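task queued by scheduler; priority normal; single chain, no ligands, no partner chains; default sampling; output format set to structure tokens
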Amino acid sequence: MEIEKYYDNLAQVYQQAFAGDPWFEVIKCADLQDVKRCVGGFSTLPVGTTCEMCGNCLIKPAYEIPELIEKFTQISKTRSTAWYFEGNQNGITLAALAWKAYVKIIAEEKYKDNTEMQEWIINMFGDKEIIWLDEVFADRSKKPKGNLSNFRSMCFGFVDQLKVPIIAFRTINERMVSAAKRDFDDQCVMYKRYEEVPDRRDFIVINFQDL
């Protein structure tokens, strides 16, 4: 399948998903020195709003279509990747992107502003390849409920395609955590944000070696 032809559509679904619950990443905060920014660098305010923190008018959406297309393109060019789609008569309802890499690369890329978390993930896995479940996003305006009902088969598909028996991901989405626990039980371990990992997101590991 020529995945590139779906990138524009996927980017639109991505925008819709992350503007909603639980992320509310609607717009980019002002990228200025010495200005306190929202956690993660995004704001819940709508485009055209004046930020109470810095006094700037916020004009850029949190995720811009060309920016997302470039991100998807670069990931596919630099590592082994796999996509998963679901859809209905209204279009793509859910998409997920996973890729495999050595843990050091994941630590440096995904936690470049958190050295504590870099050390934690390297200590956890050592020098091995794992599957990083990078993105899972759903357009709930097209399908309001049940978007993670096929989470188990999706993960098995990633393992089968990428040939690595460990999936890891980070999230603030309780639905993702619940789906992983529901579908993988003893094979799923969650490390709770702030308490068990030095990060604002829960960290989940699913081990397929015994499945």
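post-processing summary
- The chain has a mean pLDDT of 87.
- The longest helix spans residues 65-78.
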